[in-house]
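Example record for the data management plan.
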Amino acid sequence: MQLLSSINNTNITLVSFLNLTSDGIAIVDLEGRVIELNHKFEEMHGWTRDEVIGMVLPMTPERDKAAVFHLYERIVRGEDVLGMECWKLRKDGTSFYADVTISPIRDEHGEVIAFVGVERDITDKKKAEEQLKESEERYRVLVETSPEPIVVYRDDVIEFVNPATVKLFGARNPSELIGRHITRFVHAEDLASLPRQLRELIETGRTSEVLNKRLLRLDGQVIYVEVKVVPIKFQGHRAAQLLFRDVTDRRIAEDALAEREREFTRVLKLSPEPIILLRDGIINFANDQGIELFGGMNEGELIGRPIFDFFCKTYHPTIVERMNQAIQTNDSMDFIELKLRRLDGNELDVELSCIYIYKHIDSPLLQIVIRDMTERKRTEEMIRRSEKLSIVGELAAGVAHEIRNPLTSLKGFLQLLQQKNTVYVDIMLIEIERINNIVNEFMSIAKPHAVQFVETDLRALIENVIYLMEPQSLLFNVQMTLHVDPDVRTIYCEPNQIKQVFMNLLKNAIESMPHGGTIEIAIRQRENDGVSIRIVDQGIGIPKEKLAKLGEPFYSLKENGTGLGLMVCHRIIETHNGTMSIQSKLKEGTVVEIEIPVK
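Corresponding structural encoding:
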């Protein structure tokens, strides 16, 4: 108490204001016994003033007391205020980390008579520092051991590199890179962009997307890298951390693959066959022949569309099956016959094959080869018709020979009997005349005479046929119109045969319009040095299932028809190296189109 009184007398201001500070304060004598403390000390340690007075450094762990007394000794020897950071004890045995400042209390002679200890709880700060230290250590270990190159960059200069960066640039140690200008390692073609991008990212504090750049090793070799730029603080300055990934091998492989794909595409483009490439059933390539087959003008009309858009739904399961087989067997599939629906809505007979190319990112690439079978089908049909004609011709020769003579005799005797049994004989004569007409048609098929082609004015020939057919057309209330292009040239043909074709076709057209209508006849000059004749009627039309059989012997849509008329027409047109096609829709009419070469 005598010491406390002395202190109060010596430094009454300090004691008076002990309780005004937010720090814990304890006054100890030269032996470390507590002689005074403030309310904050009580709050921090959990002791009351009466409990702690006289105790020797109760707030200091035993392991730290020697260090505290060492500070006391230094102050006694003349040093002034000293500080330390250490653990402090609470009454309940727990501890906290404190920043402690020790200063002397002197008497009127300047002698140290006591010490004032000021404590501030910095436990949270200490934990944060420890966590930061641990984080920095983890970061250091991660950076040092990272297999990816990492660079710290500031003011266009390399400030730090990890071992992976040293290896990437072919250096022996970090000193060959640190301190050097970044532009030394940037490819000439990226020199204008990369430094500028780095400065902009550092200034704005934005993390970059992945940048694809080319760098130079110390030996001058070009390397391809992906760069991610992350703005950071480095030694108190704005900087950037550059995360590199060496993609040189991948880039070389990609370039080689791209070159192979360019060669592959070139081969496909030059292929004479229509070729389509599919990924997941979607068209992503079509060569010129494929575009033309689909009725397109450019690749953009097909790219991105499902292949199934161009085939009837009934074909979809078959196409899918073939595609799956090609993928599973890693091979090509045999051709299958389908009908292709072109962009203009028309249908083509085609055959399709599916070939597995390769798998890219779990998506198989398939090559589809499509062949137009129109010409082949037409040729096969011509052969079939020719074979039928040949058979019918042989049959006709025999039948005509066997029945013509009896028919002549029957007709003669009936004419003698006509006066007595007029009605019945007339009916029999009509039927015999019909049989005779059939025999005549047989003869025209069985004994084709030598064809003499002469230069013929097609317009004049058709006008003559229209004139001959006019009486019949009037009976059916049918009008016939003729349009001839002014540039239509004369053709070489057998006029009587061509006339027979037009008379037959016009007769059929007239008879298909029992309620009247119009027949349009158009003649046009083709670019391929041929002539097109188009006959359009407004008749009842022909069902689709019957259209394919037209022209076959003894198949006719007329009640008393023989089917030989259209067969003869087909044969005459084929003899002239031409083609004849028939299209029809029920209740709309029929279109017959003939193409004949000029010579």
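Summary line stored alongside the record: The longest helix spans residues 374-417.
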